[in-house]
């Protein structure tokens, strides 16, 4: 993710709107549950208390205790959806292939829309609601450990009206809607085991009115039109975390291409991007080039499709939705921004293929995605990673709250704090200086292969770097990731580099690298109070990138407006070009 806004998790305490909205559905469902759960669990030939028990309502993440669920593992989601942009009505049938990890009398899914029916292994199951987004499912007979069953959930609702903690993750746009949020967005559009620990493959099929496009992850396998509806069929064939599944419905211009390695590229741009249209295309159309460069740093691209999309949302951030990142138009308000593309595509290795074990491991995602922006700057001759590290280190005095954030365990309120990114990248520069370029880049390249399609923690990374380098690194990571204070030695000095780099001891700051402001601009496109999270603490000082001078923020925005106006002249031409390409899009690629 890029562009710092904080998302309160769906299980935020005190959220009651959601429960009130769902009271009708819950009432009818609860009538099915007049029989106590223990009795309902006792199927033919089994007595209650034979060892089967309800699955836990959370997967065990201390940052978000209600996220995900216990007792089962999902291997595949099949989502068959229909969406009406005019009314924001989403209707769906989700078929979830789940394997019980223990004997279960019932289990939970995370979901917020109104459910009309649940079937487990073909048989109608009882269901009810609890908490902010829990759907409790009680099959007719307990699920035995290791049994794999289909769970079918039929549902409908308007995602923009589903408020959890007073907030919806769904972006309603003038021509459709978009699901792209972190750490949670699935609750607004499909039932799931909503935590990165339970990754699965996805088939996402979406019917939208003819003339409207439905964008999602992976490969567009087919597209067909019938009776005024066009159905778009997408497939993600590698394990994908639920928050990395995305859906964007609207009027998009689509461009397609093939990489040098033969992978399909598909990008989509809202036809309603205004002044940002040209800069968006000038950035996202470079995705294949960026991935080719990243392969040189991180090893082979982990997925079989790539691209990006820019919907007409008023938000400011970008998100690494798998294979096809989401970019807010405001990321391009200051002109072309390839750096944000580098950030989101770096996440395909660091965050998507290798996912966090728990949300406290967010540095595994953001420290590396930010560092990849520094490496891109180094490659472009706009400032080396060392120069950027020295600049960031010197920019922030010891009493800056920036240094109180621990990137290795920032806490849920600071999960997307700028320090996780910038101090997180500083830690990597210190590591690079300590173990040398050869071992450092061996680590960067080896890690995504070691944990491909899986999950890993900060501790796993420290152990891996120690194994590759043969060095003791615990103290280094403790200083840079876990101490709530500014390290005494600058990144250069910590490695015994030239005295000129010792920012802490020098009265003169190192010169600002040319790329610094462009990279920082990807941070300063804030959402505060504008399009979501209204009244939920956004706009508080600590939600802003800590330590960034307000002057810098407003300067960046003014620049963005001026450059956006300057680029507006080219919009028409770009639009025509892309529309022509869009017409060439074969339905069955
Ligand atoms: Zn990121």
UniProtKB/TrEMBL annotation:
Residues 555-566 have a biased composition (Low complexity). It catalyses: Release of an N-terminal amino acid, Xaa-|-Yaa- from a peptide, amide or arylamide. Xaa is preferably Ala, but may be most amino acids including Pro (slow action). When a terminal hydrophobic residue is followed by a prolyl residue, the two may be released as an intact Xaa-Pro dipeptide. Residues 1-41 form the signal peptide. Keywords: Hydrolase, Metal-binding, Metalloprotease, Protease, Signal, Zinc. Residues 336-480 form the Peptidase M1 membrane alanine aminopeptidase domain. It is an enzyme of class 3 (hydrolase). The keyword Signal applies. Its cofactor is Zn(2+). Its EC number is 3.4.11.2. Residues 524-534, 567-577 have a biased composition (Basic and acidic residues). Residues 75-244 form the Aminopeptidase N-like N-terminal domain. Residues 578-589 have a biased composition (Polar residues). This is Aminopeptidase N. It comes from Streptomyces spongiicola.
């Amino acid at each position: 993710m890029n562009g710092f806004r904080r998302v309160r998790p769906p299980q935020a305490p005190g959220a009651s709107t959601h429960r009130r909205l769902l009271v009708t559905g819950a009432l009818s469902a609860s009538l099915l549950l007049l029989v106590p759960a223990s009795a309902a669990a006792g199927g033919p030939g089994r007595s209650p208390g034979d060892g089967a028990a309800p699955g836990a309502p959370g997967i065990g993440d201390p940052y978000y205790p209600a996220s995900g669920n216990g007792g089962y593992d999902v291997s595949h989601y099949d989502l068959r959806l229909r969406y009406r942009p005019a009314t924001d009505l989403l209707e769906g049938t989700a078929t979830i292939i789940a394997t019980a990890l223990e004997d279960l009398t019932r289990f939970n899914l995370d979901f917020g829309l109104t459910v009309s029916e649940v079937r487990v292994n073909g048989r109608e199951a009882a269901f009810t609601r609890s908490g902010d987004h829990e759907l409790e499912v009680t099959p007719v007979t307990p699920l035995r450990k290791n049994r794999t069953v289909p769970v079918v959930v039929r549902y409908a609702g308007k995602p923009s009206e589903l408020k959890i903690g007073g907030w919806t993750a769904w972006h309603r746009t003038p021509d459709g809607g978009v699901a792209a949020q972190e750490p949670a967005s699935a609750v607004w559009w499909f039932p799931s085991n909503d935590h990165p620990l339970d990754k699965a493959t996805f088939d996402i099929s979406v019917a939208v009115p003819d003339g409207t496009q439905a964008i999602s992850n992976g490969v567009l396998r087919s597209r067909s039109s019938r009776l005024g509806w066009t159905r778009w069929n997408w497939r993600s064939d590698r394990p994908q975390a639920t928050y990395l599944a995305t859906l964007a419905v609207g009027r998009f211009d689509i461009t397609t291409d093939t990489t040098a390695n033969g992978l399909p590229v598909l990008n989509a741009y809202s036809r309603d991007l205004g002044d940002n249209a040209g800069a968006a295309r000038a950035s996202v159309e470079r995705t294949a080039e960026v991935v080719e460069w990243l392969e040189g740093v991180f090893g082979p691209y982990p997925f079989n499709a790539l691209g990006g999309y820019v919907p007409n949302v008023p938000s400011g951030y970008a998100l690494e939705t798998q294979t096809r990142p989401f970019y807010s138009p405001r990321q391009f308000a200051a002109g072309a921004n390839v750096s944000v593309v580098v950030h989101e595509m770096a996440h395909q290795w660091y965050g998507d293929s290798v996912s966090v074990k728990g949300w406290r491991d967010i540095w595994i995602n953001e420290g590396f995605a930010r560092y990849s922006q520094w490496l891109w700057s180094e490659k472009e001759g706009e400032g080396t990673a060392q120069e950027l590290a020295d600049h960031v280190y010197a920019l922030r005095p010891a009493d800056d709250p920036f240094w109180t954030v621990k990137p290795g365990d920032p806490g849920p309120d600071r999960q997307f704090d700028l320090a996780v990114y910038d101090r997180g990248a500083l830690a990597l520069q210190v590591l690079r200086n300590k173990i040398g370029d050869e071992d450092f880049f061996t680590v960067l390249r080896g890690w995504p292969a070691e944990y491909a399609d899986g999950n890993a923690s900060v501790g796993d990374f420290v152990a891996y770097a120690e194994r590759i380098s043969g060095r003791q690194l615990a103290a280094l990571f403790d200083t840079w990731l876990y101490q709530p204070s500014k390290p005494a030695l600058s990144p250069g000095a910590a490695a015994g580099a030239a005295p000129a780099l010792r920012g802490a001891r020098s009265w003169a700051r190192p010169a600002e690298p040319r790329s610094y402001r462009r990279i920082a601009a990807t941070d300063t496109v804030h959402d505060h109070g504008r399009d979501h999270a209204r009244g939920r603490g956004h706009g508080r000082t600590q939600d802003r990138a800590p330590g960034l001078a307000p002057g810098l923020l407003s300067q960046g925005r003014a620049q963005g407006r001026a450059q956006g106006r300057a680029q507006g002249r080219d919009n028409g031409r770009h639009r025509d070009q892309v529309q022509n390409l869009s017409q060439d899009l074969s339905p069955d690629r």
